[in-house]
Amino acid sequence: MIIIENLPIQPEAGVPAYEYICDKCHQSFSLHISYAQYGHVAAACPHCGSEKVTRRIGKVRVSRSDDSRMQQFTDLADERKMEDIDKNPAEIGRMMRQMSQESGAEMGEEFNEVVDRLEHGQTSADLENDLPDPE
Ligand SMILES: [Zn+2]
User: Fold this and answer.
1) Distance between Cα 56 and ligand 1 center (Å)
2) pLDDT at 13
3) What is the CATH number of the domain that holds 25?
4) For the purposes of burial, counting CB atoms within 10 Å of the CB of 108, is it exposed (0-12), middle (13-18) or buried (19 or more)?
5) 52 lies in which domain range?
6) Closest listed residue to residue 125, CA positions, set 91, 87, 97
7) Which of 4, 56, 119, 122 could form an S-S bond across to 93 if both were Cys, CB 3.0 to 4.6 Å?
8) What number of H helices and E strands is found in the chain?
9) Ligand 1 centroid to 60 CA: how many Å?
């Protein structure tokens, strides 16, 4: 899961810095304002004084919590669409295994079984029929 973090650039600095880009002179700058001030203080460009400024996205991070790891695979599956899985389950299986290995996450028995079955060419329908219902 990719999270666009609408959070300060330097949270460790005490007062967060928010990055802006000026719509008028196109210079970027950062403002040090507190959470409480944010949204109440008009940001103005220090270069030309214009208040037409656009907040820049601070940074993009990939969430590393265990729950969201599984979410990454789910998102990936959504992106590829279920019909793609059915067209080429072996490829999806390899991709999921590779992601799992790269992340170093222990995905659990069921995940490994799903990957294994995909790699052997089973479709999502096969998987649904075979996997036990969650209790
Ligand atoms: Zn400006």
Assistant:
1) 14
2) 45
3) 2.20.28
4) exposed
5) 2-62
6) 87
7) 119
8) 5, 5
9) 25
In a domain, 39, yes or no: yes
List of residues 6+ apart from 4 with CB closer than 8 A:
57, 60
> How far is the C-alpha of 8 from the C-alpha of 98, rounded, in Å?
33
Q: Into how many domains does the chain fold?
A: 2
Q: Give me the residues near ligand 1 (ion), CB cutoff below 5 Å.
A: 22, 24-25, 45, 47-48, 50
Residue 85 · residue 124 · CB < 8 Å? yes
Specify if 57 maps to a domain: yes
Residue 123 exposure: Cα atoms within 13 Å on the Cβ side: 7
Q: Are residues 28 and 43 in the same domain?
A: yes
- Chain centroid to Cα 68, Å, comes to 9
How confident is the model over 64-117, as pLDDT tens digits? 455 555 555 556 555 555 566 667 788 878 887 887 788 777 777 877 888 888
pTM score over 0.70:
no
Structure tokens at 57: 């996205």
In degrees, to the nearest 5, what angle opens at C-alpha 114 toward C-alphas 109 and 118? 150
